Amino acid sequence: MTQIMSLSAACRHDEGMAPATASAWLNPGIVAGFATSAPNPHLIEYARRQARGSSPLAILDIGCGAGRNAVPLALSGANVIGTDLSLPMLQAARDRTDCSGLQLAVAPMDALPVPDRSIDLVIAHGIWNLARSGAEFRRAVAEAARVAAPGAALFVFTFSRSTLARHAMPIAGEPFVFTQFSGQPQVFLTCEQLFFELQAVGFDPDPAWPWRELNAPPPGQVRICGVPVIHEAAFRKNWSMSDVDDNSSR
To answer: Alpha-carbon Rg of the chain, whole angstroms?
Structure first.
């Protein structure tokens, strides 16, 4: 049976407590819904394209929840590490399979229990939008860059600024954190902000997988209330940036 590692040293928050929205991920009904969620077919296809013959991919699924993506990727032969702050979600992921290729750990997005430059594919699927501040978001992005091997792939699925009305304003002092969608601080990025933040830590757009915006209404039509617009994009860890990281650590 897949084990869940409890990494209390890594489970930190600036305020010393879990965010208010964390209670939603403990709700049995919400956990049950996620436990039956189908994987993202775009992500599964992108991961399939990263295959390297007989050598299994090392995949990190940040905020893996109940394993909707982590479990099928592990069953496909990859070595998958899934992290999340919700123990009930991780327990639901564990109950889906006893696959030896799946490891689960309690850990936040900005303190990953993973060695430097050890991951071939980093997945940030619906997790970075839960950051409560620009600082937390940037720590999380930097952590993804730290664990990514040179040339590693990154698959991003996160909230778009197009979700919100044009006149919506971010929290005072924050570049892209808003409360208008759920009442809680969440990250909503423009395409330009997403690409800028990722390139700042060494991730370049993957030309083989163009950026797309999901759930965006056609021109002239109103967005469906309550449904977030999503950025879905892929990136590659820049080799030259990895060299800089190596040299700066010596």
So the answer is: 18
Structure tokens at 121: 């594919």
**Distance between CA 23 and CA 44 in Å, rounded?**
29
Tell me, what's the pLDDT at 85? 94
CATH class of 117-202+221-250: alpha beta
Buried b (16+ CB within 10 A) or exposed e, 182-192: eeebbbbbeee
* Domain at 1-8+22-107, CATH from 3.40.50.150, 3.40.50.300, 2.40.50.140, 1.10.1740.10: 3.40.50.150
Q: Along the chain (250 residues), what's the average pLDDT of each consecutive run of 10 residues? A: 56 35 66 84 97 90 97 97 95 92 96 97 98 98 98 98 94 97 96 98 96 86 77 94 50
Range list for CATH 3.40.50.150 in the chain? 1-8+22-107, 117-202+221-250
pLDDT of amino acid 210: 92
Q: How many CB atoms lie within 10 A of CB 148?
A: 29
What is the predicted pLDDT for the residue at 222? 58
pLDDT at 9: 34
Measured at the CA of 215, the angle between CA 213 and CA 216, to 5 degrees, comes to 65
